Amino acid sequence: MKLAATMRGTVHQFGSVKEVLAKANPPKSGDDQAGISARSAVERVAARAVLAGLTLRELRENPVIPYEQDELTRLVEDSLDEAAYAAVKDLTVGQFREWLLETPTTGTRIRSVSPGLTPEMASAVCKLMSNLDLMVVGAKCEVVTRANNTLGLPGRLSSRIQPNHPADDVEGILLSTREGLSYGCGDAVIGVNPATDTPESTVQILRALDDLTRRNRIPTQHCVLSHVTVQMKALDLGCPMDLMFQSLSGSELGNRAFGISVALMDEAYDKMKEKGTSRGPNCMYFETGQGSALSSQAHHGADQLTLEARCYGFARRYRPFIVNTVVGFIGPEYLENGPQITRAALEDHSMGKLLGLPMGCDACFTYHADMSQDELESLKVLLGAAGCCYLMSLPVGDDIMLNYQSTSYHDIPSVRRLLGKRPAPEFDAWLQEVGVLDGEGPGERFGDPGVIR
Amino acid sequence: MSVTTTLIEVLRARLGAADPLPPAPALPTIEAPPARVFPSPRTRGRFAEEASTHTTALLGIGHVGTRYATDVVLQFQAELAVAHEAVEAVLPDDWAEAQKLLPLRSQVQDHHQFLLRPDLGRRLHPDSVQLLRQKAARPVDVQPILADGLSAVACMGSGLALLGSFTRECEARGWKVGTPICAKFARVWLEDEIGEEVGAKIAAILLGERPGLGTGDGLSAYLVFEPRVGKTDGDRNMMSNIHARGTPPEQAAKRLALLAGAMMAQRTSGVRLDLSALRAELGEAAGTGYRAPQRRERLVEIAP
């Protein structure tokens, strides 16, 4: 295995695959904070040149956290599809990039290879791609999931309604939900981040959402994003729950900081399959985001893109209905500005899709990150063009509880119109029936929350 | 001519050889659209009115095509500007001394580094360690620390009022309160080193919180029992959204003193602190990470 590259007569020698992966990563303030990024633009390209020559087999044999030290590494290694892996193992990362971009490589062919890829492979190939490369590959991938409706079909763009309230005021949550529905939002999920992480508040919010969706016969899913152990208790209380949620991290240590493990998630998944209320077969919802492992000092010296890919390696075990990268939420110490947040969103979407996941993106910023509203609006269009399954939606994009800026109820129909995209087909039919949409455009009741009883 | 060239000529002839677009027809005077939107009591609809009693989310704002009306755009931009102004503000070097507070700073060099290196904002500059050892009272029961955090605007705004009220609440309970301190480029965990240096039973950092849309003046307070470098978030209790439109400083100070009292009695803080007996008095502060709802204010009017 060759870990050196020569540029203009200077030899750049690297000590490990992990170091090559870190230094090949585009600039991220989180990698700088961890002290693992390339020292110069030249060294970054040298690392990419080394990476381009490594084979996928060498990446499998050199995970960024050793097998003995981390249950996610063991999970990926022990459950890898050997037949799918055999088809690509001798390709270098550079050749794998070219194979992904070639015209004959269809979404179906990528789907055949996907179960044989480790997270490190997905991360590596993304490091050799430009933003437009990432979009082209992301748009090729086929990932379609089903719960009460069907997500991720070609020509579709869905959205989560995120009607958070700082006091969990159920009336406030329902009012926001009704407004969102009247703009054609909410086909991915109506998902509430609760202010109070207790089984009682989870049950109270879910019952209210269940009443609303049943009364209006809305083909969508509901979810309360409390801790998975809280949701398990809520299920035991007989609460309706279409999707079960949990945040994931890219290392065993990081997941311990989140209060979860593979064993706990296995138990939660089993309970959800037994007691969950959606029609399925997919019933899980995960959120991730670059930087979460570093924030709990659980990064093992690995770069944040690779750790993000390892979240996806964890997530795919549970055949989720939706996975969401919350790209700009973590703050400028991990993704400093508009270009870094934009890049990370396109990377995460593409990596997740490569690994077979129904990726959505919370295109967002905190108010101390150096990103403008115009840059954020542009990112939504890029994600839509890249085939992102779904975006968030909130009143004016303002989360009044979590205090950050995301996608708005108005943005979803705007991006759909621009790109010729429609909501999930079942939800689309319902929107046509109630008059929110009329064909591809706004209908008579568009923006009228009175349409939902 | 090749077949393709012929085809192109035929195609061009069919599309029309002259201007590709005919002239646009003239329109009669365009009527002003009905006033629809950002809730002003005169124009808002019933839905918006009902919504405003339950949530500060901007609901019932209508739409122009699929986009916002002009006054919604301006209100949004005004709220964004308030948040950005708060983030960009830097605490002047002479401010703390002018308020008769002991001026300390973290290891952070400048504002840009402050945003990117939380680790440096959690430790004291060596000069500040010296100053603290020379000037601060020790040991103390409670060490209050006013700090900039992510909003120097909040620190310089209601920060002094909160510091004053909290100090009086503590003294009224007979506790020895430490020398008043103001820390620059400070993150929450800086309270650990300061509290440890002065031998405080409880450290309480009162700092500008990450601004939200339209709110640049909110303060948060984080209390920790037996502050030591190495304490984590789970060891702390916090209150957020302290400002005139959220929880006013005087009310927040009372609740923070109650929290401190519970810490003294149980000799712990954070997730191990049992607040069930105080739930009624503490109100929202009994939860972890709770944000009190705040009122939304109209920030901009279109000039008539």
Q: Explain this structure to me?
A:
The complex is a heterodimer of chains A (453) and B (304). Chain A is built from 21 helices and 14 strands. Chain A is an alpha/beta fold and 453 residues long. Chain A has an eight-stranded parallel beta sheet, covered by helices on one side. Chain A has a two-stranded antiparallel ribbon with strand order 1-2. In chain A, helix 9 (119-127) packs across helix 17 (304-315) and helix 18 runs parallel beside helix 19 (373-385). Chain B folds into two domains: 41-87, no CATH class; 90-286, Ethanolamine ammonia-lyase light chain (EutC) (Rossmann fold), CATH 3.40.50.11240. Chain B has eleven helices and six strands. Chain B has helices spanning 3-15, 46-52, 70-88, 95-98, 111-116, 126-135, 152-156, 159-172, 190-197, 249-266, 279-282, and strands spanning 102-105, 140-147, 181-184, 200-208, 219-225, 236-242. Chain B is elongated and about 95 Å long. Chain A binds chain B through residues 29, 32-33, 163, 165-167, 169, 171-173, 175-176, 179, 183, 195-196, 332-333, 336, 366-368, 373, 394-396, 398, 400-401, 403-405, 410, 413-414, 417, 442, 446-447, 449-450, and chain B through 47, 50-51, 54-63, 65-68, 72, 76-77, 79-80, 83-84, 86-87, 115-119, 150, 210-213, 241, 284, 287, 289-293.
